[in-house]
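Subject line: Sequence and fold of a protein, written as structure tokens
Enclosed: The protein record, placed directly beneath this head.
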Amino acid sequence: MISLIDAILALDANAKVVVNDEPINKTEYEANVKYISGADENGSAIYKDTQDFSWAEVSAKKAELQATYDNNEYQRKRKAEYPSIEDQLDKIYHDGVDKWKEEMIKPIKDKYPKE
């Protein structure tokens, strides 16, 4: 699941922000998301009076990231089932690349096709 923080950091990797709860609309976003401009002499955050990004920008980026995540589910499933790199290299060394592809890789790719 993609969070609002993921979306904000995708828009600006250096953003400093505090998010209370996970806003689901513009009103909650404006009330629960505070961007940080710096720190005072005690190290406490100084919050900006404005948002760095609008609700429309952040929610659109979140939807885009979620769609990408959902569309790549097959990759996550494949990764979980592939043998370790050590086992794969051992298979290649002893049996060659063709056997490795046929016996270790192809069954998993067939199980979780790229749709």
